[in-house]
Amino acid sequence: MIQYLHFRNQLTILLAFLTAFNTLNAQTPKRTCATTEVLAEQVRQNPDLLDNIQAIEEHTQRFASHTQLHTRSSTITIPVVIHIVYRTSNNIENISDKQVFSQIEALNNDYRRLNSDYNSTPSVFQAFSADCGIEFKLAKRTPDGKATTGIVRYPSARRTPWGKNDEVKIADKGGVNPWDATKYLNIYVCAVGSGILGYSTLPGTGTALDGVVIDYRYFGTIGNVVAPFNQGRTATHEIGHWLNLRHMWGDTDCGDDAIADTPVQEGPNYGCVAYPHKTCGNQQTGDMFMNFMDYTDDACMNMFTSGQKQRIHALFSTGGARASLLTSDALIPPGETCLVPTNLTVSNVLSKTATINWTSAPSVTNYIVEYRVTNTANWTILNVNNANTLAISSLTPDKTYECRIKSVCTDKNSEYSSTLTFSTLTASETCSDAFESNNSFTTAKLIPNNTTLNALISTKTDNDYFVFKHTDSNKDIKIALTNLPYDYDVRLYNANRQLVGSSTRNNRLDELITLSNAPIGFYYVRVYPYSGSTATQCYKLSVEAVDKDYLRENTTNVLEEKPADRLRVSPNPASELVNVELETGFEGDAQFTLIDMTGKRVMETTQPISKDITLFQLDINNVREGMYILMARCGNKVHNQKLIVNKPY
């Protein structure tokens, strides 16, 4: 109960700060998002919402710590209804269908990382950038079962802008009630006013007024849009909040957004910032100001991260706050009975063969499966009767294929499914699961040092464990995971099964771990699929002992300016002990506090520090897995550093 009240008080104080912070910024012509103010007002009116917000955060952290729950390879389609509420005294607010279509296109490009400016992401952040696997489609069915285009227009006699008090969503106030928020994303386009570009409700704040509000001047990429917010990124940003993403600075000075792969930053960035812009001790990377959840101009935003994607997908996992959208019928036209097959996957991919799998749809007589080499013109078409799997032969080795499927019903065919891609092995490669059973530390297969092997993830929940002996203290360890059929990750553990290295790059990017000054002894390697990666084809694992200058010669270094103050933790992730290093001009007792993502203090200690570097160890044996912030208070100055706690399996 004490911990709960502490969480409640901390969040209440934070919300009060956010209201003051955003009110000040609302007076400027820069990007302004009123989401935090709306949340503060909702909590003031209904403090019980804190219970919902805390429960969603706990669910998100559980999801983040259990990779088998992730759905990263699945595309989530969100039904959208656009409510255009325009004042009859200003018909320019009644934007065109084409302007709406341009916004939907911009959203799909941004959330699938198909945006034309994706290459503008600085190289230091490229590995963290992510295709969020989210698509948006206009609804085809109303809540009462009638046909719709997903665009609904409402003339209003109102003379003043709607503001941020949600009256645009209330019929009794002259607005329009949202459609069923368990089935639709409600987006309101209207005159917001007060310099506010838009705002959103967060998950857990109720369905009665759930949705996103965007000023008509900042919605879409054509028509009545005003620079520098004319590329649709206001909706991308606000829907990010609707999908449980926070601002990059955590809405407080040098705050945290509860995501591990985004740097801590001092506050919002405006306009177009020159890279690097370094704040809050993020000297190695600088601010990730090009992230869609910052305040930069539309032309200077271009990315989400893998951590943000993971946080979004938690909402759609079992028990997630927005999981009901997955079963919405909003995209099925009235009278439609021929549904698109779902969960298209590939398995058993070899040099010339592969197996296509899918989930059956009701009332289907047969399926049409098409595949071709990517970027070629002609599809190979096959019919499948009374089955949900198809073995394909006569493929060409070392080629990337794309595949799609549709249902055939008595009176019509469905649309095609989303396209699936896979790559065949080279003609000389063989891949057999010779290492099974090796799905735990105790069954790990012994492999020689300095070797490369072809191994197989036999199922989407399979984990491959290997053990090897490092015999030369004058060499570093290099672990390389390549030739990935889908999104696989790799971890390195020492003989005590403590995590000493990990690589979790997005999609099919190669994974690399380097461990310098590695002591002689046994090490474990764990290879596992990011859940949802269902292909069962070959990957390459290379285990090497390399010269000590390997890191210096093969790592792209980022120019780092030495800051006056710095808090460092290592290893990170950690499991039992954390080395804490503080470099500051302060001398005296410093208070160190470990805070979880709900704001709860899980550990506190006081350490004497000097004006030089102070080093001590923090015992985290009793700290549960998850993501934390280590806060060091030195007099009137505070330093923060993220810490990920992983426990050996």
What does this 3D model show about the protein?
- By secondary structure, the protein is an alpha+beta fold.
- It contains 8 helices and 29 strands.
- It has helices spanning 2-25, 35-45, 49-65, 97-111, 123-126, 233-242, 306-314, 550-554, and strands at residues 76-87, 134-138, 151-156, 185-190, 198-200, 212-215, 342-347, 354-359, 366-373, 380-385, 389-392, 400-408, 420-423, 445-446, 451-456, 464-470, 475-482, 488-493, 499-503, 511-515, 521-529, 538-547, 566-570, 577-583, 588-596, 601-609, 613-619, 626-634, 637-645.
- β23 and β24 (577-583) form a beta hairpin.
- The two termini are 31 Å apart.
Which class of secondary structure composition applies to the elements? alpha+beta
Percentage of residues assigned to helices: 10-25%
Question: Strand-residue fraction?
Answer: 25-35%
| Poorly predicted residue ranges | 1-10, 16-28, 67-73, 550-564
Mean pLDDT across every amino acid position? 83
Biggest sheet layout: 6 strands, mixed
Number of strands: 29
Distance between the termini: 31 Å
| Overall body shape | globular
Oligomer: single chain
Report the total helices: 8
Radius of gyration: 26 Å
Helix and strand topology:
Layout: H1 2-25, H2 35-45, H3 49-65, E1 76-87, H4 97-111, H5 123-126, E2 134-138, E3 151-156, E4 185-190, E5 198-200, E6 212-215, H6 233-242, H7 306-314, E7 342-347, E8 354-359, E9 366-373, E10 380-385, E11 389-392, E12 400-408, E13 420-423, E14 445-446, E15 451-456, E16 464-470, E17 475-482, E18 488-493, E19 499-503, E20 511-515, E21 521-529, E22 538-547, H8 550-554, E23 566-570, E24 577-583, E25 588-596, E26 601-609, E27 613-619, E28 626-634, E29 637-645
Parallel strand pairs: 1-2, 1-3, 1-4, 4-6, 14-16
Antiparallel strand pairs: 5-6, 7-8, 8-11, 9-10, 9-12, 12-13, 15-22, 16-21, 17-20, 17-22, 18-19, 18-21, 23-24, 24-27, 25-26, 25-28, 28-29
